[in-house]
Predict the 3D structure of the following.
Amino acid sequence: MLAETDFDLTFDGKRNTLVSSDALSIDPKVGLEYGYKNIFFCKGWY
């Protein structure tokens, strides 16, 4: 089980995100990933 963080960055400034300005929008995400024998992987984000 792995914990992950990620940021979606957009540069049009027209998104409804947690952090937004006229030129930049940032939408942070956290999630978990489970791998089984390096064959099957399942990932969930919030």
Summary: The chain has one domain: 2-45.
